[in-house]
Amino acid sequence: MLEGVCTGFCPKLFVKYREVYLIDTEGVSHTLPIGKDYKIRTGCSYRFYFLSPPESLKENCPWMEKAMLADSLLGVELLENTPDSGTASPSNMDL
After folding, report:
1. Do the domain assignments include residue 58?
2. What is the DSSP string of 55-79?
3. Which residues of 78-87 are buried (b: 16+ CB within 10 A; e: fewer)?
């Protein structure tokens, strides 16, 4: 499980996920591969639930871990719906 505020995203071509940038409650930055079917807004707080990849995968292949995380997302929970501004702009649009 990971909880934090979405600070941005980067759409990826030819893959089934987008990279979502998140700052957790301790101020640590994370880049998460999230499926394109999930709607995430910049400036909103979310909780992400994942299956854990095998320990051996974390040590040997970071790119493989990213692919596994994209497939192991159990769900996303919107905690606080407070984007930075009420107008649509590239920084706070839905994914």
Report:
1. yes
2. HHHHHH-HHHHHHHHHH-EEEEEEE
3. eeeeebeeee
CA gap 19, 12 in Å, rounded? 7
Q: Average of pLDDT values for 42-66?
A: 69
CB of 18 within 8 A of CB of 95? yes
**Token pair 């998460």 in the structure block, residue:** 32
- For the whole prediction, is pTM greater than 0.85? no
- CATH number for 40: 2.40.50
Domain count, the chain: 1
Long-range CB pairs of 68-74 (<8 Å, 24+ gap) are: 69/32, 69/33, 70/15, 70/16, 70/17, 70/33, 70/34, 70/35, 73/34, 73/35, 73/38, 73/48, 73/49, 74/49, 74/50
